[in-house]
Amino acid sequence: MGSSSQYILSIQSLLFIIDGVLMRRFSLFLMLGYSAAVVDCDGLKSQSTAAFFDLSIVPVLADDSADPSLMSSVGWKVKLEEACLAFGPIYLYHDAEQHEAACRPSPLHWLKAGWSWLLPSVYAHGAYDGDGEMSEVCGEWTKRVALNVLSNQMLLFQTLSGRTESVTSFSVVLGPVRSKEASVCHQGEYAYARGVASKDGKEILFEGGLFHQDGEEEPRAHRLPVRDVSIEDGGEIQLLVDSTQWFDEVDFAGLTVYNDDGRRRILPRSEAAVLWRRKLESDQSFRIVQVLNKKR
Question: Tens-digit pLDDT profile for the chain (296 aa)?
C-alpha cells in the first residue's frame, strides 16, 4: 500500500511539473503571438483609445483684420459682397494608404481576434473615398451645413466621436443643403458668390453659383494634407474655410452673359466655373488646424 501511494504521488508530482512547464510555454506563446499579430497589422492602431472632441467651422474672413479683397494672379482685384458654401460630411484620415501597404495577414490572426474580444480596443471604421477605395477614418462629421463665408459666424459641433490619432489628411464633401438653410445659398447651389472685380480702371459686377449636376461625381475637396493635428479626448479641431482664393485664376473679361440687373453671370459649365470649382476642391479653400490647450 505504501509503495502504491508513493507511486501515485510521484505521478502527480511529474504531472504538476509538466503542467507548469506547459503553462509557462503556453503563456510565452500567447505573449509572442499577440505581439506578432499586433505589430503585423495594428502597430499604430493598437494604442488608440476612444475620443470625444469638438469640431468648429470658421470662415477665414471672420477675422476682422482679414482683407476681404483679393489681387488675383491674373491681375484682377476681386471683392466679394456675398458668398456662401454648403458642404459636409467631413472625414479625417490617419495614414490609411501607408497602413494598408504595410499590413500583412498574420497566421496568428485568430489569436489577435480572440485577444481583442477579451480586451476590445477602439479601431477606425472604413469609408469609401473619392477613388472608390476603402480608407481608415479616425474622426468624422456626418452632417451638412450652409455657411456664410463672409460673416463672423463660427459653427461649433460638440462631442464628436473618434479615435486618439494623428490626422494626416481630410476630405470635405460639397453639396447643397436640402432644408430651410438652403436659402443661404439661393437656388440650391453648393457655392454662390456675388461681387466686384476691377482691373485697369474697368469694373465688372458679377455673380454665379456652382451646382451638382445629376449623374456627375459628387464634388469634394479630397484627401487634403494635414500637419501637426491630432484627435485628442476633450480637444478641438478647426476647419478653416477660405474664400479669398476662389477667383484667383478667373478672367472676368470673359464673362459675356448678363443678368437683368446688369451683372455678368458665371455660368455652371463655363471656364470661370471650372476654375472656381478647382480652387474649392484644393487646400487653398480648406485647412484643418488644432486648437491648442483645449480641454473640457
Answer: 555 555 444 545 544 444 554 444 444 344 434 444 444 444 444 467 999 999 999 999 756 655 668 899 999 999 999 999 999 999 999 975 554 544 444 444 444 444 334 433 334 455 544 445 556 899 999 998 989 999 888 899 989 999 999 999 999 999 888 765 555 566 678 999 999 999 999 999 999 999 987 777 889 999 999 999 999 999 999 999 999 999 999 999 999 999 999 999 999 889 999 999 999 999 999 999 999 876 65
Cell numbers 432644408 correspond to what residue? 179
Determine, yes or no, domain membership for 225.
yes
Backbone torsions φ then ψ of 149, nearest 5 degrees: -80, -5
Task: Using DSSP, state whether 12 is helix, strand or coil.
Answer: helix
What does the DSSP 8-state code read for residue 124?
P
Q: Which residues lie below 8 Å from residue 141, measured CB to CB, with a gap of 6+?
A: 55, 88, 89, 90, 157, 160
Amino acid symbol at 115? W
- Residue 68: CA count within 13 A, CB half-sphere: 19
Distance CA 53, CA 31 (A): 34
CA distance 139 to 208: 33
Range of the domain at 178: 47-104+122-291
Q: Is 18 left (phi over 0), alpha (psi -120 to 50) or beta?
A: alpha
Instruction: Please list, in sequence order, all residues whose beta carbon lies within 8 angstroms of the beta carbon of residue 95, skipping any fewer than 6 positions away.
Output: 44, 136, 166, 168
- Number of structural domains (the chain) is 1
Q: At 55, phi and psi to the nearest 5? A: -120, 125
Given CA atoms 133, 138, 139, 142 in this order, what sign does their dihedral have?
positive
Which helix (H) or strand (E) covers residue 37, if one does?
Answer: helix 2-42
Q: Domain for residue 1, yes or no? A: no
CA 254 to centroid of chain Cα atoms: 35
Residue reference for cell 480596443: 121
| 115 located within any domain | no
